[in-house]
Specification:
Number of strands: 15
Helix content: 40-55%
Structural class: alpha/beta
Distance between the termini: 22 Å
Number of helices: 12
Strand content: 15-25%
Radius of gyration: 20 Å
Bound molecules: pyridoxal-5'-phosphate
Largest sheet: 7 strands, mixed
Shape: globular
Length: 348
């Protein structure tokens, strides 16, 4: 099987952990692994003296936790809404009755920063919620400009880096982001099931709210001080996460090595798309994925790849729009082959 979805192809040594006997979670051994993962995660995201919470749950669980524990303590948020994931911040704020301004960005477009600044002046938010990469379209938002605006107007910055962690450069301390989130099946490229909250040092003594029993920050942080989780963790996934983090930490330039691999594959595939006449829709496209428009309007490519080639790519919201993930294991030959198969199915 070949996978260009989330996750992409995973190395055998990580997959094999899933079929081996695993340790009991209420042990010092598990605590040590958990604490070590926290240390590596903070190093890779660049959050000195920060904290992490690793949840058993998908990325949306972590987004929900952020709103329950933190956004409900704030006066008003501005939400960058450029697709399905921006919309999810909106749904969550609505669900928890948080005041928000829905800042709409056209699908696949970069933010109009003059309009954003005007809106900030008019709406006076104290919190900004955004995605680094709107995975539904493939557009990478300019996080440096967002961060500069947040610094200028003293706004607390929360960034969903679920699909850019380890795929795009990101420095939480430099950007002065208060909270970031990621999940296992995207940049980390291991099986789905864990999500991760990064809390900056600034929030060390913050009084969080208690609006959700399972995702409660304080309860989780207290348990994590001794490397434990309040409830049963997905033990195997914690072990796979730890192994993957160790692997990345051991690269010559750590996350930058990983990022440059992703970037190389991304550049290569984007060039192939050009040669086949598939339009890359996003302005400022991310390296994490390539989103491209084909002529196929009835999912011939999606179904054909599965049935004929045992291969997955991601269909998008628009007919004929497909997305290929570059965060998994893939070679240039793989990408050539994939493009050939897509073109054959498109014209079948
Ligand atoms: C995948 C993803 C999520 C989380 O989605 P789940 O369905 O919970 O896995 C959130 N934000 C972004 C940007 C994502 O790519």
């Amino acid at each position: 099987m070949k996978s260009y979805v989330f996750p992409g192809n995973i190395s055998d040594d990580i997959m094999e952990l899933g079929s081996e006997p695993f340790i009991y979670m209420r042990t010092d051994e598990f605590s040590d692994i958990n604490k070590e993962s926290e240390k590596y995660l903070l190093e890779l995201v660049h959050a000195k003296n920060g904290r992490t919470i690793i949840y058993t749950g998908s990325g949306t669980g972590a987004m929900s936790a952020v709103v329950e524990n933190y956004v409900t303590t704030r006066n008003k948020s501005i939400i960058i809404n450029g697709g399905s994931f921006g919309k999810r911040w909106v749904s969550l704020c609505k669900y928890y009755n948080c005041e928000y301004y829905d800042f709409n960005v056209e699908f696949g477009r970069q933010i109009d920063f003059n309009r954003l600044e005007d809106t900030i002046i008019n709406e006076n938010p104290d919190t900004l919620l955004c995605q680094h990469h709107e995975t539904s379209s493939g557009v990478l938002f300019d996080i440096k400009i967002i961060s500069d605006l947040c610094k200028k107007y003293n706004i607390s910055l929360i960034v969903d880096i679920i699909s850019t962690f380890l795929a795009e450069e990101f420095n939480m301390d430099e950007l002065q982001a208060d909270i970031c989130i990621t999940s296992t099946q995207k940049g980390l490229n291991i099986p789905p099931g864990l999500s991760i909250i990064f809390l900056s040092e600034k929030l060390k003594h913050y009084k969080f709210n208690h609006n959700g029993y399972y995702w409660d920050f304080e309860d989780n942080l207290n348990n994590l001080s001794r490397g434990q989780t309040p409830f049963s963790p997905a033990t195997i996934l914690y072990l796979q996460l730890n192994k993957r983090l160790k692997e990345i930490i051991s690269y010559p330039q750590k996350e930058l090595t990983n990022i440059s691999q992703v970037r190389e594959n991304s550049r290569y595939f984007k060039k192939i798309c050009e040669s086949y006449g598939w339009e890359i829709k996003a302005e400022n496209p991310s390296c994490a994925i390539t989103g491209f428009q084909t002529k196929d309007t009835d999912r011939k490519i999606f179904k054909g790849l599965i049935n004929k080639y045992n291969t997955y790519i991601m269909p998008g919201a628009i007919p004929g729009f497909y997305r290929v993930n570059h965060m998994g294991l893939q070679t240039k030959e793989d990408l050539n082959e994939l493009a050939k198969q897509i073109s054959e199915l498109e014209n079948s």
